[in-house]
Amino acid sequence: MLENLGHLSGTPWVYVIITLSVVLDVFVPILPSGVLVITAATAAAGTGTAAGAVSAVGASVDAGAHLAEMFSLVLCAAAASVLGDMVAYRLAWRGGDRFDRTIGRSRRLTAAQQRLGTALHRGGGGIVVLARVAPAGRAVVSLGAGVAHRTVREFLPWSALAGLVWAAYSVSLGYFGGQWLGTSWISTALSVCALFIAGSAAAFLMRRPERRPAH
Predict the structure, then answer these.
(1) Which end of the chain is flanked by fewer CB atoms within 10 Å, N or C?
(2) CA–CA separation, 215 vs 29, rounded Å?
(3) In this structure, are residues 18 and 5 in contact, taking their beta carbons and an 8 Å threshold?
(4) What is the pLDDT of residue 163?
(5) How large is the average pLDDT for residues 199-215?
(6) What is the reported pLDDT for 50?
(7) pTM, whole model, 2 decimals?
């Protein structure tokens, strides 16, 4: 995968693949899209490291080009994340009864939906950011917001922030892994492990019981 993405690095195809993966990940999370984003960033960073070693001038020019590419990867992944969130949100809004029955069969999903509604209502949509990192949390939040008929004004800003944080974190892992360890499966594996550790921490925080104020 690293080699294939390395050949596609710098071409429009890598952005098309990432966009499709991130959008569809909210519905079919077979291969977490973060893995693909990390792999693309690792391939681009590793290629830049090898090419930039020719000369000091070439290295500075190459570094600027690859930073621009990392920035483009962040924007692409973040925009695709928001697009996928809004598609799921709209589908759940229109088919609310069916999705509501599905969520109602699970205590965990019901509790997550209630916490989401309370957080958005109070302006504390940080749970949307946590859910974007947690495994399958993105789907629960996007569908839950649609089922509960939360307004776009409530949900969209937090979805955009969540997508940007997730994209920047994933691209940074791939970029620094590729810079320090080169284009290898070791750098990709370590970066993916860091992504899953963050996801596990986010899932733990989401499952933690909400503190109620003492009377």
Answers:
(1) C
(2) 43
(3) no
(4) 94
(5) 63
(6) 45
(7) 0.76
